[in-house]
Amino acid sequence: MGVGIHRYSSVAAFWHWLSAALVLTQFYTGYMFHQVFERGTPERTDMFAWHKTFGVLLLVVAILRVATRFFKPAPPIPQQLEAWERVGAKVSHLLLYGFILLIPLGGLVAISDRGPVELKGGITIPALPGVTEPIADFAGDAHETYVWWFAALLGVHLVAGLYHQSKRTAAAGRMWPFKGPANR
């Protein structure tokens, strides 16, 4: 007889994969404007504008994602997993949500001492009030540090997901489009 599987809702899966695409885009745009393009060049300015635009979009998606999770909680973590795996899943998901909110918010703080934030498409959003240059500098440093921590945690998340899928454990198939555990 097959094992019952509790999956994330289709809305949660949508936010998950949209967040993943935006995070990858942010890694790319952040790398390009920090490491590839020289300061003061039009290419760097353009890439930074894309980074800010996708960052604001990621923040909006992250807020919607958290709201979705509040109204439609995640499926229970399978009891068949080891205790350390269940704790690791809870802690890592909490940290992932924290980073996906704090990193774009920190980026917004980091540029809010410069006045209104200009995004692609002619969109301008107000700067966060009360941000001074020292606060912006601190937020910028934290933003960059948290990106590296987030990248490491995403690596763990990816490896854990691939492990559970390849072994078809009780955690397999919780997120679309993956298949559930093998029949036992």
What is the gist of this entry?
The protein is mainly α. The protein is 66% helix and 2% strand.
General description of the model:
- The protein is an all-alpha fold and 184 residues long.
- The chain has one domain: Transmembrane di-heme cytochromes, Chain C (Fumarate Reductase Cytochrome B subunit, Up-down Bundle).
- 66% of the residues lie in helices and 2% in strands.
- It is built from 4 helices and 2 strands.
- The chain has a two-stranded antiparallel ribbon.
- A hairpin with a 5-residue loop joins strand 1 (117-118) and strand 2.
- Helix 3 (83-111) runs antiparallel to helix 4 (133-167).
- The N and C termini lie close together (6 Å).
- 21% of the residues are buried.
- The model has no long low-confidence stretch (mean pLDDT 88).
